[in-house]
């Protein structure tokens, strides 16, 4: 009987997971029909738990302002349109508290979700005006575009607050919401068989100087890329030597990318790169690579012992052997105790603390609880400990490494460090 019940549940489960759709039309309060406006559904449950920052079924309007969101799980939702930083909610209100919810059922369409939004030439973001800048990506020959391209803009201070990202549609169109000031425009997610030829705004070369946003946009950004035909691309492959089975519990990969391009002292990272897994036999390969000079490194493991290695692709396939410098893996665990030193297993550990190792000859390494270090002597420090915790001790093999140097020898097995935090009840 139990087996039959489980089988029945498994058979019914796909039907329970089938979503519904929402369709409608967005118009401007001026009466026009906007295109390329982002539209998304926000689960009612997420608004209560995380301020409504989870979007479901993201789409955009066509040239008539019409949209359709598919694959939405059954449930109650708010519908928003416009920039995330300054959205308008159905039925045309600015506050989510004033918005109206809709109910989506399996295999059904909620139609007629029509509402108006303010013209988005300028929107208010963090108390400052943002300007809508539109653009288009084209190819040198007028052919199709690579999938999943995006365009980003960063302010001169490279702050997260000043960053904007736009995804390029199948027709090559995109739009950015930028604050007043200077912005570096870059293209990301370029495959290795393509390259940026030019980025321009009217007569301005945005590969040589930043885009200055002062008011209402008067032109559009045009990005031209070149795609190398398959017959003129090559394979980059190789093998990694001295690779551990896992680094911090994960299998690393390899990244092939163009070097950073700098103009007038400022970096413009065109992000022409690709990632490849390292196979079980420690080999890797990249296909359809255009001729050029690349850098080869690990993905997410700069501390693993490989500084980027140059790879030159000219007129044939390239094989590269990478030798990983052997290092010792350091893994720290955190324990929480009270004032008497008794363990407090029910007190959650801080989610983020930083562990740093400093060597006079090798420099500083950090900041996670796992590192790979060269042999040598290090001074250990722990930072970013939140209240009401305080640092009680840091030890390795019964040695207090806050008072004595932490000596690292080459070891095939990880070296354990114990960080003890004292918890004082508020």
Write the layout of secondary structure elements.
Elements: H1 2-16, E1 20-28, E2 38-43, H2 44-50, E3 56-60, E4 66-72, E5 75-81, E6 88-89, E7 102-104, E8 109-110, E9 115-117, E10 122-125, E11 128-139, E12 150-155, E13 164-167, E14 173-179, E15 181-188, E16 194-201, E17 204-205, E18 211-213, E19 221-227, E20 234-241, E21 253-257, E22 261-263, E23 266-268, E24 273-277, E25 283-289, E26 292-298, E27 309-313, E28 318-323, E29 328-337, E30 354-359, E31 363-365, E32 370-373, E33 376-383, E34 389-396, E35 399-400, E36 406-408, E37 415-423
Parallel strand pairs: 1-8, 1-9, 11-19, 20-28, 29-37
Antiparallel strand pairs: 1-4, 2-3, 2-5, 5-6, 5-7, 10-11, 11-14, 12-13, 12-15, 15-18, 16-17, 16-19, 20-25, 21-24, 21-26, 22-23, 26-27, 29-32, 30-31, 30-33, 33-36, 34-35, 34-37
Structure description:
The chain is mainly β. It has 4 domains: 19-119, Immunoglobulin-like (Sandwich), CATH 2.60.40.10; 123-227, Immunoglobulins (Immunoglobulin-like), CATH 2.60.40; 232-258 and 277-323, Immunoglobulin-like (Sandwich); 328-423, Sandwich (Immunoglobulin-like), CATH 2.60.40. It is built from 2 helices and 37 strands. The protein has helices at residues 2-16, 44-50; strands at residues 20-28, 38-43, 56-60, 66-72, 75-81, 88-89, 102-104, 109-110, 115-117, 122-125, 128-139, 150-155, 164-167, 173-179, 181-188, 194-201, 204-205, 211-213, 221-227, 234-241, 253-257, 261-263, 266-268, 273-277, 283-289, 292-298, 309-313, 318-323, 328-337, 354-359, 363-365, 370-373, 376-383, 389-396, 399-400, 406-408, 415-423. The strands form 9 sheets. Strands 10, 11, 14, 16, 17 and 19 form a 6-stranded mixed beta sheet that branches. Strands 2, 3, 5, 6 and 7 form a 5-stranded antiparallel beta sheet that branches. Strands 32-29-37-34-35 form a 5-stranded mixed beta sheet, with no helix packed on it. Strand 12 (150-155) and strand 13 form a beta hairpin. The chain starts with a helix and ends with a strand. Residues 1-16 and 265-269 have low confidence and may be disordered.
């Amino acid at each position: 009987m139990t087996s039959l019940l489980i089988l029945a549940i498994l058979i019914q489960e796909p039907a329970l997971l089938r979503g519904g759709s929402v369709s409608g039309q967005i118009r401007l309060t001026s009466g026009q029909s906007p295109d390329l406006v982002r539209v998304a559904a926000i689960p009612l449950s997420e608004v209560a738990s995380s301020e409504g920052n989870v979007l479901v079924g993201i789409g955009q309007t066509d040239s008539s302002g019409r949209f359709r969101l598919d694959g939405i799980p059954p449930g109650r939702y708010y519908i928003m349109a416009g920039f995330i930083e300054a959205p308008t909610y159905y039925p045309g209100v600015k506050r989510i508290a004033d918005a109206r919810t809709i109910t989506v059922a399996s295999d059904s369409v909620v139609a007629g979700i029509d509402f108006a939004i303010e013209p988005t030439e300028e929107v208010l973001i963090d108390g400052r005006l943002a300007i809508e800048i539109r653009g288009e990506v084209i190819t040198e020959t007028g052919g199709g575009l690579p999938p999943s391209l995006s365009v980003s803009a960063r302010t001169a201070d490279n702050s997260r607050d000043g960053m904007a990202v736009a995804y390029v549609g199948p027709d090559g169109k995109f739009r950015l919401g930028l604050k007043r000031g200077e912005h570096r425009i870059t293209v990301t997610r370029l495959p290795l068989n393509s390259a940026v030829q030019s980025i321009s705004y009217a007569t301005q070369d945005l590969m040589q100087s930043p885009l200055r946003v002062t008011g209402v946009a008067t032109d559009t950004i045009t990005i031209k890329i070149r795609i190398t035909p398959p017959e003129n691309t090559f394979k980059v492959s190789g093998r990694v030597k001295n690779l551990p089975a896992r680094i911090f519990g994960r299998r690393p990969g390899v990244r092939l990318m163009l070097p950073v391009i700098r103009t007038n002292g400022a970096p413009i990272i065109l992000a022409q790169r690709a990632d490849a897994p390292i196979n079980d036999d420690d080999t890797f390969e990249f296909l359809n690579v255009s001729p050029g000079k690349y850098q080869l490194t690990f993905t997410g493991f700069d501390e693993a012992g490989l500084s980027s290695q140059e790879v030159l692709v000219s007129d044939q396939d390239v094989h590269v052997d990478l030798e990983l410098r052997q290092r010792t893996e350091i893994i720290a665990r955190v324990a929480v105790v009270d004032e008497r030193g008794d363990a407090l297993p029910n007190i959650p550990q801080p989610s983020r603390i930083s562990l740093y190792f400093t060597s006079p000859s090798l420099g500083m390494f950090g900041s996670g609880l796992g590192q790979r270090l060269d042999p040598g002597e290090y001074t250990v420090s722990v930072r970013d400990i939140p209240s009401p915790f305080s640092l009680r001790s840091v030890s390795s093999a019964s040695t207090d490494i806050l008072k004595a140097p932490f000596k690292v020898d080459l070891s095939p097995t990880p070296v354990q460090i114990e960080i003890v935090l004292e918890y004082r009840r508020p």
